Amino acid sequence: MTPTGNEQETKDETVRQAAAWFARLRDREPTETVRRDFRAWLAESPENHEAFSNIKSLWYTMDRPAQLAGANRWYREGLGVGRRRRRLKNLANAAAICLVCLCSAALWRDDGLIDRAFADYATVPGERREVRLADGSVVFLDGDSAIDAVLTSGQRNVRLIRGRAWFNVTPDPQRPFIVAAGRVETKVLGTAFAVDTDRDSVDVTVERGHVAVSSGRDDAVELNAGESVSFRDDRLGEKSASDLDITLAWRRGLLVMNHTPLDKVASELSRMSSGRVILRQDGTYPETHLSGVFKVSDPDAILSALRAADLHAVRIPGVATIIYR
Question: Which domains does the chain have, with CATH numbers?
Fold first, then answer.
């Protein structure tokens, strides 16, 4: 049953109260008065107890990078040296710990940081960018995407490192244009098409012209305008007709979802705003799907739709978006 507006506001307020109590209890040593008030708040309703348990579980999920940074207590080695040297070493170790934790936190919050830093062209989450290559070809990058481009006198090579890109290739019969994404290679002479990478899958959709798609094995597929193919489970599937208005809607700043599973929704959210997207699904519930048309510049609209589907969706700007039931 979908909650009413008042019911959803009550749930959100309970989550906020649980988060506030969790922060107070972690702040040094809570007084007995704080502990007593907390126990009284827990006893008010089962919903309070459930919300606090969820917040605590989510915190330890988010706290994992810091735990890994200090694994094996390596920073405590060498405590038997002289006092002055020990103090200097402790300071150096403390600085190293801080640096490792900061780096771990940054990489945890944004797993595309390194990919984008070393790419020729890249976009951060929430950014969309058009790039014109030296041969006149145009590449349109969606949020959190990165490419490398090497254009020589005999061949044009682009590697899609992460994310999603649309290509409008300048015709040149003497220089094939090849886009590599993982193990999938798309070869063209002059056309417009899109390549979308997501974890271990790659999707290729042709808007205009003709392309040849291969995966480094014996399988290969030729696509014409309005056709697409997907690479999943270590193989290319069969080509199929594609509704370009829906598949390429992201180029117009729109996302069209039609019974889209939550893991795909989470992937789209990660392209729309900074911070890690954490999806926690309870196997005791039926899988949730989402339908609707959303602006790529408005991730809050997707979160509102998820809440309307009886899910909790909490966004900590720049840090994380947490989706759970």
Answer: 5-109 (no CATH), 116-243 (2.60.120.1440), 253-324 (3.55.50.30)
State pLDDT tens for residues 264-320.
999 999 999 888 888 886 655 567 889 999 999 999 999 999 999 888 888 887 788
Long-range CB pairs of 57-62, under 8 A, 24+ apart, other chains included: 57/280, 58/278, 58/280, 58/322, 58/324, 59/22, 61/278, 61/280, 62/108, 62/278, 62/320
Q: How many beta carbons lie within 10 A of that of residue 168, not counting itself?
A: 18
Query: How many angstroms separate the CA atoms of 223 and 189, rounded?
Result: 13
| 0.70 surpassed by pTM | no
Whether 178 contacts 195, CB under 8 Å: no
Q: What is the pLDDT of residues 182-228, one digit of tens each?
A: 989 999 977 999 999 987 899 999 999 999 999 877 788 999 999 99
